[in-house]
Amino acid sequence: MTEPVIHGVLLALGLILPLGVQNVFVFNQGVLHKSFFRALPVIITASLCDTLLILLAVFGVSFILLDSSLFMPLLIGAGVIFLFYMGWMTWNSSPENTHEDAAKKFTFQKQVLFAASVSLLNPHAILDTVGVIGPSSLRYEGEDKIAFALACIIVSWLWFSSLALAGRFSGKLDKSGRYVLVLNKLSALVMWAAAIYLAVSAVW
C-alpha cells in the first residue's frame, strides 16, 4: 500500500503546486482576513471540490461526463465568463480599502460561492484530474485504489490550509492595505490570462 500512497502524494503535489486561479484566490483570502479561521469557508469549499473531482476521476464517473459533446463547451464558456467577472471585481477593489474593509466584502456565502466556482468552473482542473489522476488510478484495485485516492485528497486539504495560512502571515506584514491592492491587481491579471487562454484553446 506504500506505493499508491507515495504515487498519490507526488502526483497531487505536481498538479496542485503551479500558480492558478484557485491557488491565488485561497491565498488572497488568507491575506484579507484577520483570522485564519475566517478563511475556513474558502479552504473547506476548495478542498471539498477537489475531493469531489478526485473521487469522480478515480472511480470513473467523470469519464462519462466528458463523453458528452455539450459538457466541455458549456463548462469552458461558464469558466471564461466567471473568470472575467472575478477579474473585474478584483481589479476594481478600492485602494482605500483596509484589510478589514476588503474582508467584509467576502461574506461566508461569497467565499463559498467563489471558491466553488474557481474550483468547479475550471476546465483545466477537471482535465488535469480526469486526464492524469483518473488514468493513473487504473493501475490499482481495491484497497490500493482507495489509498491512492485518499493520498491525493489529503494533499489537497493540507495544501489549501497551508496556502491560506501563508496568506495570513503575509497579510500581517502590511497594515496599510497596499499589499492587498497589489495582490488584487496580480490576481486579476492571472484570472484574465486564464480566461483568455481557455477561450483561445477552445477555439483552436
TrEMBL record:
One of its GO terms (cellular component) is plasma membrane. The keyword Transmembrane applies. Pfam families: LysE (PF01810). It is found in: Cell membrane. GO terms for molecular function: amino acid transmembrane transporter activity. The chain crosses the membrane at residues 6-27, 39-64, 70-91, 146-167, 179-200. It comes from the Bacteria. It is a multi-pass membrane protein. Keywords: Cell membrane, Membrane, Transmembrane, Transmembrane helix. The keyword Cell membrane applies. This is L-lysine exporter family protein LysE/ArgO. The lineage of its organism: Bacteria, Bacillati, Bacillota, Bacilli, Bacillales.
